[in-house]
Design goal:
This protein has 14 helices and 16 strands. It has 514 residues and is of the alpha/beta class. The protein has a ten-stranded mixed beta sheet, with helices on both faces. A hairpin with a 4-residue loop joins β6 (198-200) and β7 (205-206). α6 runs parallel beside α9. It is globular and about 65 Å long. The structure holds calcium ion. Calcium ion binds at residues 39-40, 90, 325-326. Residues 39-40, 90, 325-326 line the site of calcium ion.
Length: 514
Amino acid sequence: MKNRLNILLGGLGLFALQGCKAPQGGQARQPNVIYVFPDQYRNQAMEFWGQEGFRERVNFRNDPVHTPRLNDFARESMVLTSAMSNCPLSSPHRGSLLTGMYPNKSGVPLNCNSNRPISSLRADVDCVSDVFSGAGYDCAYFGKLHTDFPTPNDPQRPGKYVEDRIPAWDAYTPKERRHGFNYWYSYGTFDEHKNPHYWDTDGKRHDPHEWSPLHEAGKVVSYLRNEGNVRDPKKPFFIMVGMNPPHSPYRSLDDCMEQDFNLYKDRPLDSLLIRPNADPEMAKAESARYYFASVTGVDRAFGQILDALEELGLDENTIVVFSSDHGETMCSQHTDDPKNSPFSESMNVPFIVRGKIKPRLDDLMLSSPDIMPTLLGLAGLSGSIPATVQGHNYAPLFLDEKADVVRPTGALYIQNLDGEKDADGKIRSYFPASRGFKSSHYTLALYIDRDSRKLVKSLLFDDRNDPYQMNNLPLEENKDVVDGLCAEMGKVLKEIDDPWYRERILSDMIPYGE
Ligand code: CA
């Protein structure tokens, strides 16, 4: 009952904030929500960042990509310049997205595979979809999930994993682990982009042999049209779409659409890898053509969903978000690791929100755990945000630039690695290898030794004056800056009960308070 009252008040609050009148003869209709998040899609890979109205607001050059639909969408939306994936790796981000918690509490500190029983989305907490479901929404999940520990539960081959290699990465999520999603068309993780597969609501497997983002867009459009009577048209809907591209491998036309590849195939690599910190001589450089082709294909798939919303008259009352799980270094920073680092190519993700919001840009440093409470707030459900949520609800700021909201001073950076293994080779703990803090001015990351827990490496960049992070500053020559960042980092690590706080790691540098 309390929940229902909160939902009602929350819904009315949304309309009050916007100065809108609820429709006559009844309460305001709850908005639909669609959250689209491709994988490994960096914020820089959107063409509009180079266009008037946007380029003056960021200190990086956009990648030379063609994203016509996102360009138009951004002009109708609130666009964040500085949204961060705190633990820029697939499963940990997704765990935070779904639970509103940091990886130390979400159940997902590491990428999920069958060797890591300690990394699996918690069944005992309310996820964003549980809350929407409880508020009367139909909830649908499409595409890549990658938050479950794979178990031998293949619905077509009882007693077996859904893939034969071990460790198994892909997973089937049974009904009892779907957290309020009553429509399902999903898989764990699988990288044959033109040969994807999905398990539907009833566990039936589908192998559509179509480039996965376009296939998923088609399924979403079908859901919106309610083909097959898959949703209750009287209910609002909450849809999440986890597209896998622009994910690796980026090496052939098996990975992207040829029409998109043709836009990039004849361009010299140094005209594609234009960031000053990129090295077009790296072995991976050829991948840039496929990466950007995948970006353009995702743009088209996203556009198909937008077109269907308009055609069905649903665009007015639907909040649409475009984001990603983390970025991709793509030959920047001389690393082959596309993610899991504090570099802006890895951490800075798209975050664009359309629907009942005045179009504008904002430099809010949104963190992964903030997404769940903010989505709920935008839908008028701020009263239903579970107490377990560690992130903050920034919905008031989306609705009113001048809202009385305390902005974050930055975003935490988190890198976890495998910890101890048991006799069977299963990972039983995780090693919190690095913590850092990214403010609007600086990026700091501190790395520790596994055994001594002493500092072994640091990264410190003056992002304002060195936006491509080419000059790693020595900590000792920048003591005031480091002290300031460590003070902010210590506060957040304590607030979220992180292992670094619990073990007082580097307490000679990081003030943890009591
Ligand atoms: Ca990922």
